[in-house]
Amino acid sequence: MIRTIVDFFGDERYSVSRRRLFYVVLVLTVLADFIVPREHAGYLWDRLPGWSAVYGFCSCVVLIFVSKFLGHRCGLMRREDYYD
Length: 84
Known about the structure:
Elements: H1 2-10, H2 15-35, H3 51-72
């Protein structure tokens, strides 16, 4: 069972299936956000369907870019053979 899962996520043969699975999960996540009741939302943007998915995606993208900037431009990242 675990070998099948590892092969699915690691083998190049399944790249099209992985991409389709990713899109299905993404669409289901956004659709599930339309079902959630919003009568107790504290802010206006909390009442928008799909807001949490968009906010989470944008936060992850910003986190990646900030970490790349800190690593490459600010000198936090070392060469691969630094400790050799």
